[in-house]
Write a structure and sequence with these properties.
Elements: H1 2-10, H2 30-46, H3 50-64, H4 68-83, H5 89-105, H6 109-125, H7 129-145, H8 149-165, H9 169-183, H10 190-209, H11 213-223, H12 231-247, H13 251-263, H14 268-288, H15 292-309, H16 312-328, H17 332-343, H18 346-349, H19 351-367, H20 371-506, H21 513-544, E1 553-556, H22 557-567, E2 574-579, E3 585-588, H23 590-607, E4 614-623, E5 626-633, H24 660-670, E6 673-680, E7 684-691
Helix pairs in contact: 1-10, 2-3, 2-4, 3-4, 4-5, 4-6, 5-6, 6-7, 6-8, 7-8, 8-9, 9-10, 10-11, 10-12, 11-12, 12-13, 12-14, 13-14, 14-15, 14-16, 15-16, 16-17, 16-19, 17-19, 19-20, 20-21, 20-23, 23-24
Length: 696
């Protein structure tokens, strides 16, 4: 039973869904792999699949290598797999000690706390007194030197378990109450709430052992609000209620909680464990009432369910009650056989059960007139019963001292209360005098507060006005940007159209019929492209007026190049070519990038004025997971001063120069791009657009 409650304090949330093993090949870094594997291990723990947990922990250890924090966790899980798989405590302790070593090496307090709690229980189960005493001293040292709430909550509870094992109930209760205080300071969660309920239930079990059943019921009632969501813990609570009511001989209450346990859903072994416990309590009640047939019925069920539970302690207790019932049925040989089976590890689990077993063994042998065996078991019974009586006497003395101290303190409180009454009268007179003074101070304070609030409201109003002014300024800037965009992107195509019309009007004799037809076709195409560009720009402008922010999407570079080629189709003296051998796809804002490309292309065309055999080449390539767009011309090149607007926020560009490099820089920054320029005299100019990941 104690092991089950300790387990509850460690894991309270139980999942019912199967978990899939993660494919570690999907994760790049070792840390990502370890995190994924640790999450998977935690899910398997929730399912209580300890056979599977063993192999998972082994793999976790192998991939942790030189990471002590993860090694500590996976050695802890390997220890859990051994501990909760047929109680392989010796193997468990080896792994727990390794887990503690690695946790200490990196000062991982949470891992260290959990391992210390498990070692405390395993040393107890192995009866390794020396190691346990050293461990308890270390736990006390940790508690004295840390303010960590989680560590205080867990290790105070663990210290309480230590004192419970030695029937030092007062110390146990003190440490458990301290643990509860810290648990209530932890962030609220289902598991922590249930742990508080478990701690209250453990205190109740201590009072049951001390035969203080009313006090036990009081703490069980305290536990109720914390265990509403856990049928498993509620089942344990019902069993404790049954124990109390069996002792108080209240059959209606016994039946109430017995039936309630059968309505509570549970998982795996816990179902059989709780049902075995409940049937053992029923057998206890009926054997005390001398209704042996009923007692035998329930004892038989308790043993059967205890065997299914795989819990040694619950089976021990079931066999103990069955031994008592068989003794009362005068089936002494069967009683001896059952009681001997129960006595194997009884002393390690519960001294009281061990005393009862040896008493009934002595009585059974005596009934068979096997006096030597009867004397042997009677001596064991007498020895441990005397120890229990001494412990009980010590406890009674401690309780009596506590009651005496409480009574003395109560009298002192009464005396102090009388003195306080006299002082209160004197204080009342002084209060009246202070009342008027305080009222005046409060009035002054209220006036001061009103003035302060008035000042604060004025500040808030000024802040709002300042914010509105900033928003207005930003709106003006956005408007200016779009006028600049319209100016630049529409100016060049319109100027080409006007140039042709002037040429046709003023010098028609310079154009033959074939040339005129070709230029008309080109102008019509240019005008159509101009109309399309105008619609594109105006629709984008309308959508961006309130919030000038990029909206990334996947776009093909080939589509951008095709649109640019159409936009500048009316340009005759410059050969524009496009290279995109990798068919690159970009994730960026299409309109921002179109504007940048048009601007750079327009600037390149201007730079090639009066250049023979003028060429512009757009290229798209991908290198080292980074995408580059570049535009190169074979013009006369330029100086760094001419490109200063790309790097200097203070550089001013005139309206006649269009959007200019200043706004190109701003748009590129908005879509997380970098513009680089390389220009040499008489060798042309290359602008390179470097793309980074766009996060919006």
């Amino acid at each position: 039973m104690r092991k089950a409650l300790v387990l509850l304090l460690f894991f309270t949330a139980i999942s019912v869904f199967a978990q899939q093993e993660p494919n570690l090949a999907r994760f790049q870094s070792p840390d990502e792999k370890l995190k994924a594997w640790l999450t998977y291990a935690n899910e398997i723990i929730d399912l209580e699949d300890y056979a599977k947990l063993f192999s998972i922990a082994e793999k976790g250890i192998s991939i942790s290598k030189n990471n002590p924090a993860y090694l500590s966790r996976f050695y802890l899980y390997k220890g859990l797999a051994y501990e909760f798989s047929n109680n392989q405590y010796q193997k468990a302790v080896v792994n727990y000690e390794l887990a503690l070593k690695y946790a200490k090496s990196v000062k991982h307090l949470k891992n260290e706390t959990t391992v210390l709690m498990r070692l405390n229980y395993v040393y107890y189960s192995l009866n390794d007194t020396i190691k346990r005493e050293n461990l308890i001293r270390y736990i006390k040292k940790v508690l004295d030197t840390t303010k960590n709430t989680y560590t205080q909550s867990v290790l105070n509870g663990s210290l309480g378990e230590y004192y419970l094992d030695y029937s030092q109930y007062e110390n146990f209760i003190g440490y458990q109450l301290k643990a509860i205080t810290y648990k209530k300071l932890l962030p609220k969660s289902i598991s922590n709430t249930e742990n508080i309920g478990v701690s209250y239930s453990q205190i109740a079990s201590a009072y049951i052992k001390m035969k203080q059943f009313d006090k036990a019921i009081e703490y069980l009632n305290d536990a109720k609000p914390y265990i509403k969501t856990s049928p498993y813990i509620r089942a344990f609570s019902c069993n404790y209620y049954m124990q109390c009511y069996v002792a108080e001989k209240k059959p209606d209450s016994i039946q109430k909680y017995y039936k309630l346990i059968y309505t509570l859903p549970s998982v795996k072994d816990s179902l059989f464990l709780n049902l075995s416990f409940a049937n053992r309590s029923m057998a206890d009640y009926y054997v005390d009432k001398s209704q042996i047939d009923k007692a035998y019925y329930y004892a038989k069920k308790a043993v059967l369910l205890g065997e299914k539970s795989t819990d040694d302690e619950i089976l021990l207790e079931a066999n103990t009650i069955m031994g008592r019932v068989l003794y009362e049925k005068k089936e002494y040989k069967k009683a001896i056989e059952t009681l001997k089976l129960a006595s194997k590890n009884a002393l390690n689990y519960d001294k009281e059960s061990y005393v009862i077993i040896n008493k009934k063994l002595s009585q059974s042998y005596a009934a068979l007139e096997l006096w030597k065996e009867a004397l042997y078991y009677n001596e064991i019974y007498s020895k441990y019963n005397d120890e229990m009586m001494q412990e009980s006497a010590k406890q009674n003395i401690a309780n009596a001292e506590a009651r005496y101290q409480n009574k003395t303190k109560g009298q002192e409180i009464k005396n102090l209360s009388a003195q306080n009454t006299i002082k209160n009268i004197q204080i009342a007179d002084a209060k009246k005098q202070r009342f008027y003074l305080i009222s005046g101070i409060i009035l002054v304070g209220i006036i001061g507060l009103l003035l302060f609030r008035q000042n604060q409201n004025r500040k808030k109003t000024n802040q709002k006005l300042q914010l509105l002014n900033q928003e207005l300024d930003e709106a003006n800037k956005i408007k200016a940007r779009f006028f600049s965009i319209l100016n630049h992107d529409l100016r060049s195509p319109i100027s080409n159209l006007i140039h042709f019309l002037h040429l046709q009007k003023e010098n028609p004799e310079l154009i033959d019929e074939a040339t005129a037809l070709r230029m008309q076709t080109k102008v019509i195409s240019g005008a159509e492209n101009l109309l399309s560009s105008m619609e594109d720009i105006l629709l984008w402008s309308k959508g961006q007026m309130e919030n000038f922010k990029p909206h990334p999407q996947k776009i093909a570079v080939s589509d951008l190049f095709e649109e640019t080629q159409k936009h500048f189709s009316s340009v005759e003296k410059v050969a524009i070519s496009f290279e995109n051998p990798e068919n690159i796809i970009l994730n960026t804002d299409e309109n921002y990038l179109k504007t940048i490309i048009r601007n750079l292309t327009g600037n390149a065309i201007k730079a090639l004025d009066k250049t023979s055999n003028a060429k512009i080449i757009w290229k798209a390539r991908q290198e080292n997971n980074q995408i580059y767009l570049s535009i190169s011309d074979n013009g006369h090149g330029g100086t760094q001063e001419q490109f200063k607007a790309l790097y200097d926020d203070s550089e001013v560009i005139g309206i006649k120069s269009g959007l200019g490099l200043h706004l190109v820089r701003d748009l590129a920054t908005a879509i997380n791009c970098k513009i680089e320029v390389t220009s040499k005299p008489d060798s042309g100019t290359t602008f390179k657009i470097i793309f980074f990941e766009l996060n919006v």
